[in-house]
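Checklist before submission:
- one chain only
- standard amino acids only
- sequence pasted in full

Submission:
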Amino acid sequence: MHDRFETYSEEETRAAGKRLAALLPASALVAFSGDLGSGKTAFIRGMCVHFGCADQVSSPTFALINEYKGTIPVSHCDLYRLSSLHDMRESGLEALFASDGVVLVEWAERAQTLLPLPRYEVAAWHGESPAQRRFEIRLVNDEDNSILFSPEQLIVRQA
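Returned file contents:
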């Protein structure tokens, strides 16, 4: 699987997430990478529409991991605040990555060496207009095919 596309509203971004979710196996790990405000959480909200848990979705920046009950278990991680692999290991991410259900990981580039293969990766960028977002999705079977950003490629959203 490899797809590139653009969205022009949050509704379109959620619809794209719903389409990807329909294609996933029941124990998929989806790694998200992109700047602040690039559409990662909106995309995840769309995925959770498919899994029947969209009303539970909130950004887990401060909680680290949110678990949602839907048609299958969904775990939603946000690694933005974690800065070291030690912190990630201490938080139990490796056990979570091996668990049943779908695992959705925002800021996944921070834990790239811990992420299992195969995995789905979603890279998100701001577009040329304020509402435009660009996405690339890839099934990754080896690290050479990863599309996760390196930390120096990420910028802070401009006001």
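Reviewer check: Residues 10-132+147-153 form a domain with the Rossmann fold fold (CATH 3.40.50.300).
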